[in-house]
Amino acid sequence: MKSLESQLRGLRDAGRKALVPYFMGGLTPDWTRHVEAAVHAGADAVEIGVPFSDPMMDGVVIQGAALRALAAGTTLDSICADLERLSTSVPLVAMTYYNVFLHYGLERSAGKLQASGISGAIVPDLTIEEADGWRAACRDHDVATVFLVAPSTPPDRIRLIGAATEGFAYASARMAVTGGSSGEGAGERVVRQVRDVSTVPTYIGIGIGTPDQARAAALVSDGVIVGSALVQVILDGGGASEVEGFVRSFREAIDGPRA
Amino acid sequence: MKSLESQLRGLRDAGRKALVPYFMGGLTPDWTRHVEAAVHAGADAVEIGVPFSDPMMDGVVIQGAALRALAAGTTLDSICADLERLSTSVPLVAMTYYNVFLHYGLERSAGKLQASGISGAIVPDLTIEEADGWRAACRDHDVATVFLVAPSTPPDRIRLIGAATEGFAYASARMAVTGGSSGEGAGERVVRQVRDVSTVPTYIGIGIGTPDQARAAALVSDGVIVGSALVQVILDGGGASEVEGFVRSFREAIDGPRA
Amino acid sequence: MSSPDSRGRFGNFGGRFVPEALMPACLELESAFVEAWNDPTFVDEYQRVLREFAGRPTPVTHLERLSERLGINLYAKREDLAHTGSHKINNVIGQTLLTQRMGKHRVIAETGAGQHGVATATAAARLGLECTVYMGEVDTVRQSLNVFRMELLGATVVPVTAGSRTLKDAVNEAMREWVACVDDTHYCLGSVMGPHPFPWMVREFQSIIGREALGQMRDLGVDPPDLVVACVGGGSNAAGIFAGFANSSARLVGIEAAGGAAVAGGSPGVLHGMQSLLIQDEFGQIEEAHSISAGLDYPGIGPEHAHLAEIGRAEYHPIGDEDVLDALALLSEMEGIIPALESAHAVAWIAREAGHGIPKGSSVLLNLSGRGDKDVAQVRAMLRGES
Amino acid sequence: MSSPDSRGRFGNFGGRFVPEALMPACLELESAFVEAWNDPTFVDEYQRVLREFAGRPTPVTHLERLSERLGINLYAKREDLAHTGSHKINNVIGQTLLTQRMGKHRVIAETGAGQHGVATATAAARLGLECTVYMGEVDTVRQSLNVFRMELLGATVVPVTAGSRTLKDAVNEAMREWVACVDDTHYCLGSVMGPHPFPWMVREFQSIIGREALGQMRDLGVDPPDLVVACVGGGSNAAGIFAGFANSSARLVGIEAAGGAAVAGGSPGVLHGMQSLLIQDEFGQIEEAHSISAGLDYPGIGPEHAHLAEIGRAEYHPIGDEDVLDALALLSEMEGIIPALESAHAVAWIAREAGHGIPKGSSVLLNLSGRGDKDVAQVRAMLRGES
Ligand SMILES: Cc1ncc(COP(=O)(O)O)c(C=O)c1O
Ligand SMILES: Cc1ncc(COP(=O)(O)O)c(C=O)c1O
Question: pTM for the full model?
Fold first, then answer.
């Protein structure tokens, strides 16, 4: 398996803006079919949320999805088991809170991710200062640790994060939790600042809810992450075809008019 | 008009134990008929309550009667007006709280009592220390001021009260407010103590609710005062004939078997 | 403020108008108090308990934001921080220690909303004294939580069903019951009212407020303040703080509830063992007071206040219910202190008169007699009813 | 107790686990606090406000009757007498002054039952800071009076509808909102929890309890007491009093609610920005705490406590709901102090262990973290439901 970062650098080198949809693992019994639909519609990588009881960095949509998934009995184990059903070539990135891994065991978690074909992890409450143990575990299992950069992150810290992040840098467009759409978008500035100090691909997330927003973000970055808006489609009862349509609309917006 | 005290001394000299029923002025429209019935049944003097909003020395029965009388519009004036309808030869003694007289004017109150044929006043919240002004007013109007002696009153104070009281001394049988029947009866001791220091007639009141109690009290004193038990008869709807029967039963108990 | 005369008179007011059965107890209490109050052991213990149990001294807070808003220099003596939430504790600590000293093992008390009842139950619990509290039946319903509080503290609460079934009747009933148990029971009266020596004794037990405040204001460089303002129900918190400033040049201002304004709307009379100013009808029947605040819902005023009013040493003004809620909100929002509705009367007067009856730039000491926690449910209901 | 290391660690616990967006604020706060705490002007002002506004020092009361009953020598540090009714005020005075110093004009806070929310609203009102309090929707209903209290104090209360809609979720929500307004807003956290520097800073702001108590116990000739006992929700009152005695020979005892006993029933984990002991399921999902007392209804414990437990310097014991009501009644009845349900946990442990885990004759200092007025309605309902 190629490393997450080499895959994503490859995409960039190929001139393709990455589209990374987010799914909450275990949200519906057939959630892996949603992942497949997204890939079918042009997703370049997929973020897979492992639900946590206290999702401090998530807005109401993903909170709701997490609670629903938990209520359905979802665990890291069940998600990994589900992933055995999934056949896809795009990289998978887990997204969850540190306690899920810590409690499961860092080494054991990383191994589990690797065994399930997951090649990266986003842990939004794990800062670079606290990440040594987790990164060491990941290194042994070829799991990349993706760090976030926020609009509030000062330059010297961006340098550290730029150096630490693996796979890509997650540039938060807003001072907000997932789904947050208020406040000024600062994605472009953040991406520029990351690029000043690092060559890692830099994707914009947080508050990318419409194809237009995705297109604008893709113009100034290496890719976009679409979370709450997509999860909302599924919470509203959408199935694989709705997911596919949703992702396709973002794909098309990002890639620009074909005609 | 003979003074209250000379009348009551006269009774004692004649060997008659005084029976003094209490009526709440204005309790019913025909309350003066109750007074007449009592006299007819052998009352030697009558206490006439002037209702006060805050009857600190009265138990529930007389409190209730006072409130009812007040609600019916009873005032010192209305009681005195009612008394014009009353024809009786026995002495009348007003009983009320100091504020009623104070607010009406001490001089004016005493004059009013006198004009209505009332020859004495019991003011249970007026102690000998505070009574100078009232007594001066009464003196001008031949109204006697009756003071109480309680079971708790120490000998030196009994001496002062014995010297101050006019008409009779009101010996409280109990440490209780009117109607109180619990606690030990101390009437006999109190009467003895008053007699040690004074020749004034001494009547027992507070807690004389049955003919038997009245007989026992009369044996050791110069007379008895019957309040709450009688007022209860009227509160229960009793009219003049019930009042007459009630008072007669006390009279007979006090006088002993005729046969 | 000076001691009353031998009959317990402050000028034309005060005295002792009680059933003869209670005279010995009043006399015993007077001499026990005089003796105790002159005994450094007693006074030390009283002060120690106030310090170590009740949280004295209470601070004086400079209300900076409100001062600026009103154009005056406003300070608050913080009786709201005393144990049980008001100045009432000062008095009951004194009286329960005196009860113990007199060899009695039981106290009774009247209460309106329950503040004095809770304070009495508290002080009694501390000493292991039995405690019975008389409370108008209407108030036991309105203030059922305070009933439970007293019960938690081991007291027995007796609902009074006589008369208007409120505070006035609770006092009557406590007096009646005291007659029956005066041997082993002390009547722990809750304000500067009742027969001598209560008005004097309670003022003395409360004067610690004024003594502390005098020193604290000195430390703050305000000696004396131009005005000292307190709310007046019976008048104990006012008497307590006035005691520190009576000999100074400070204007002393008592604020009564308009619906129970014994100075502005009353006349001389006798009630509850004292001669004072009372609201009463033309026949001397006592009227019921009506106030938003249970603690000011009293138709009389302590006799010493009647005297201070008569001689002009203190002034008394009424404040209507409508201004009180605003004042409560004002102090809460500007200073982070939710005052008792009682105390909010004094705040309301100050807020209204600043720049008028109170010249700009004046220094004003407010006696914040209690905290508003007890009133919050009522205030909410009233504000909702209005809006 | 010593300072945490540069990463905010107390041994294996503590640290900083927050969204990257909040890191600058945490770092800014850390340096602002360090600077302020070393600035005598700031410390003086903090102490002055605690003295003149919040009523410090709070007394130590010798609980004489209860001591006799239990065969120990029991003392209570009276945080119930602090303004707003608990130790929470110490922390918020510190944090709001710091907010002002950082040039921010707004605070947000989480609250469970409302104690910390009311305290924050209070301290914010005093300084004229805007204040928004996040409170689980379930709690806004259960504690609607406290919601009104905060509103009276000028704060906005936002019901949190996420998750279990209680305290844990209110913290999450406050963190989320902080992300969006971190520029002009300080998050005024209510206990020794959260990301560094909060656990340390809040302990420092609360350590005035321990410093006062140490001197007061000395004055009482008890130096040091054999035990120091405090209830533990997040652990701020315990940390505050332990701070005075950590270098002494006193046994330090924290009492957790059995339904939220992070030491007895928890395991290491990360929540709310800190590594500590948490109650969680086998997959690391945080469990809801269940306690009779809202203030102890927290699934974690401050990291410094986790550390003190690990190194054996302090011990932590659970107490079940059933013992708490009895303890509340016991202290009320014997001493005239109605404790907060939280504080009653500590009383319950002492009452149970006196003569057993606590040798006869021991001197015990109880941190009476708050008054029970807020709990009286609930206690009544529970006692009625039971009987
Ligand atoms: C807080 C508070 N202030 C004032 C009063 C009025 O009493 P006084 O006038 O005796 O101070 C009360 C009575 O309950 C009270 O609770
Ligand atoms: C009175 C009281 N004690 C204790 C606590 C628990 O908090 P901590 O453990 O931070 O002292 C609270 C929290 O609300 C409280 O109100």
Answer: 0.96
